[in-house]
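This section describes the prediction task in plain terms. A model, or a person checking by hand, is given the sequence of a single protein chain and must write out its three-dimensional structure as a string of C-alpha cells. No templates, partner chains or ligands are provided. The sample shown here is typical of the held-out split.
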Amino acid sequence: MTGPMWLQWFYVFFWIALIGLMAIGGYFMFRKFLKALPKADGKSILDWQEYYINQTLHLWNEEHKALLNDLVSPVPELFRDVAKQTIAGKIGELVVKEEAKQLTQEHIIRGYILATPRRDHKFLIKKLKERQIDISPYQELLQ
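The expected answer:
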C-alpha cells in the first residue's frame, strides 16, 4: 500500500515547496556570485563598492548616517545592511568622481536614487516628503 491520500498530497506539496525555496535561494546566491566576479579592470562590483566606501568613510557624520538609515528603513531588515552598503558605495562613487571635499544631503539622495531600482523610488519620495525635503531637483533622476 502506498499510504493515505492526504500523506501523498503532503509529499507532493513538500517537494514543490522545497524545490521552490531552493531555487529562490540559488537565484540570490548566483546574483551575489556575479557581483563578486572580476570585471575587465580586475575588480568586481563589490571591490569597487568597498573602495568607494573606504575612500569616503571619513566624510560621513552622524547626521548623514541617520539620513541614510531613515531612507533605507522601508527595506526589510534582512536586506537592509546589504542595501545600505550598496547605496553607500554609490554615494562614495559620486563623491570621489566629483572630487567633493564633503558629503552633502544631495549626494546621499542622488546616490540612493542611482543605487536603487525604480520600483523603490516611491518609498524614497515618501520619506523625503516626511522630512520636508524638496524633491524637485531630483525629478530628472526619478523618471
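For orientation: The first helix runs from residue 5 to 36.
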